[in-house]
Design brief:
By secondary structure, the protein is an alpha+beta fold. Among the domains are: about 5-175, Nucleotidyltransferase, domain 5; about 470-530, no CATH class. The strands form 7 sheets. A 10-stranded mixed β-sheet has the order 1-4-3-2-5-8-7-6-19-20. Helix 4 (about 125-130) crosses helix 5, helix 8 crosses helix 10 (about 330-345) and helix 8 crosses helix 12. It is globular.
Length: about 550
Amino acid sequence: MPNCVQTIKAPVRVRSQTKSIQPKARNVWAFDTEDDSKGHVYWINFFNGDRHVSFDHPHRAVEWIYEQQGDFWAVNLEYDLINLFGPLLDQLCVLTYGGFGLLKASIYERPVRFLNTLRHWAMSVEEMGERLGHPKLPFDPTNLEYCKRDTEVTWFFVQEMLKRYEELGMKSVGATLPSTALKFYLEDYCHVAYQRHPDLSQWQFLSRSRYGGRCEVFFARPVTGNIWEYDIVSSYPAAMARERFPDLTTARECSVPDFGKEGVAHCTVSAPTMEFPLLPWKSPDSGKLLFPVGRFQGVWTYPEIRRALSLGYQVLKVHRAVEYESMPSPFYEYITYLYRRRHEVKHSDPLMAYTLKIAMNSTFGKFGEEGELQVISCGTRYTMRQIPKHSNMIWASYILAYGRLALYTYMMQATEKGRLLYVDTDSVFVRSSTKPFEDSKGELGDLAFKATYRYAHFKLPKLYRVDDSYKAKGVPLDKKAPKGEEQRLKKEFFYDGIAEFLKPYRWLEAKKIKEQANVWREVTKQLNATYDKRSVAKDGRTWPLTIGG
């Protein structure tokens, strides 16, 4: 029957790894859609823990949802909204986009909010089902039962996670886990001034001190032997718990900085000749984050400058500085609570442990939020630029800097044990005939053993092979490949520099080039880069670039 609606009591039983739950809110729904990858929708299904409401045509589904209210969760929200609303999506809904895609949506002037599970928990439906003991059915998008099962998995997983939010004391659920965790921190754990300076020119200056993680190749040829991989345990939360921070109430501009205090300074420095320089520098030409030697300018936090001076760097000139008195970490109580709680439930409640881990790692980024959003309402696109009051910027800069400094300490220790091969933010790869580091106790900031390999080849940041495993950022796993061959595309990209795979047109992309959204087409990702963040010698060793002579 076309355009049919099915309302069915759901005989659902979920074997969760944790305590069973009861549906608490009838206005919390999950929904899922199935299509033929060519723009034709097979099914749209809604589930609220008690009943399914199913449609085989989007128009009837839209009529139904216009009469509803509450929160509607989906995995990969934009894709399902496109299937639900079709070309009328930006006419009927308010869409809010951030730097990483769709954040949230709502129906215009209706009490319906759409939320994306991926903005809270980076899990596929398949992984959710495995954690719940309620697995996906074999792939068949034409089968309504397949769509229903995905919707059930989504709804029960959301309920499990919302229950954990409630247990932690998170009073409201934002569009993302970082926004939810931030509100929790500010309301319950922050006891100091945290708001940004009202002078936006100062905020813009501070933002220049915010650099990302360090990702570098130190040996660019294939290598064999005993290759060890280590990770820093919760690198950023460790910095948040242990280090000192600027007291925002004491900010002052100064021309002669006291690097024993806290702050940010724009300096010209001279970096000594060394294999592993410390200070980051963003290339104005490529935008890449480099760690050079020579003479150059940059804006850095005081902790980085203090460490650089101890390594033989010279500050030749200070162009501007914003200085603060030092204070103990404003995050100590918050991180300590989350970490201890995670340790307590690590084996008894894996979903709570996962929630705590993500909350610990996602909060600090909100203090470096730039506040630019794209909002589409009634077909019109608006750019919203409003820097949030909580975005003081310097706390985010400090935490990122402390993370790089911790990595640098372990890098230097690794060079004493063997050949340092590669680092990425909080990971270290080193070749050593013997185990280079003692076993970790798993405490915050410890360097923890992850794996050993017999072969490695690091070509570029986030493009490498270790044994028979391949890392190639931006190249997906081939989920339809035979078991054991899922990395086929990554392997092809690593060796041939090219990979072809299917990808759907996203909403904004489709509007721009006048294509139909959610139609899958073959895309080609081609490797055009050579490693240029350091100079590569004939023997495979890499050396820092020299800036300014």
